Amino acid sequence: EPHVTFDNVTFEYEDGRTILNGLSFEVPAGSSLAIVGPSGAGKSTIGRLLFRFYDPQGGRILIDGQDIASVQQDSVRAAIGIVPQDSVLFNDTLRYNIAYGAENAGEEQVTQGAKDAALMPLIERLPDGFDTTVGERGLKLSGGEKQRVAIARTLVKNPPILLLDEATSALDTRTEREILGTLKRLEEGRTTIAIAHRLSTVADADRILVLDSGELAESGTHGELLSQN
Ligand code: ADP
Ligand code: ADP
């Protein structure tokens, strides 16, 4: 059974313009799906529906076979970790910023071991001398460092589903490449949905959907998509 299913989903915002038009796709458990397409295609809207910021007017969205419209919003959200493009950090210590993710998840779910395992690869790439316990504050970080902290904050709750919404798009190419490498390790064992505007950043995804005006234009592996065009 697929972990995440969009089944003939239609959606419009309050202005009544159709944004998603009968969209269907499945994401097998533990696999990665990338969604690419031009700006305005509806990519971020897919994430907002999965996180239940909005509910679709038609069709169904399933997690583990269960229609998320019939599940408590909180329990849907507990299963999903989001990394947005521009993460907002608190002007507080990095430890506070990262622990905030764990507190949101309910501290009892997060063992110290799981926390450290998720955090180490992220923290060790922060600049030399950065102390996550005292002193250093979120607002002092560069874009790339901020994203590392944001990823750590998301992963401390150990979400089975990871939703990356242009998580590296604001970064320079080199920083982006480094963070994509880190993410690849951290995605292991999770079902990942990565929204991106460049095909090259999602070349490793198990499957890529090309979305255009709320409809599926193409899908396949990176190699398949390149050979079709
Ligand atoms: P993408 O992520 O592919 O750039 P989005 O999902 O953000 O696309 O947006 C799809 C379309 O929905 C765009 O035309 C956008 O202007 C419109 N849209 C996004 N949010 C809203 C909103 N809150 N109200 C009305 N229209 C919106
Ligand atoms: P780096 O030093 O890691 O290359 P920069 O801080 O130079 O990143 O980022 C370039 C631009 O992108 C800056 O204007 C920065 O504000 C913005 N930016 C990148 N990522 C983020 C982020 N996660 N949060 C806020 N702004 C970001």
Automatic annotation (TrEMBL):
Subcellular location: Membrane
Domain ABC transporter residues, every copy: 4-229
The protein's name in its UniProt record: ABC transporter ATP-binding protein/permease
Source lineage: Bacteria, Pseudomonadati, Pseudomonadota, Alphaproteobacteria, Sphingomonadales
Full-protein positions shown: 358 to 586 of 607
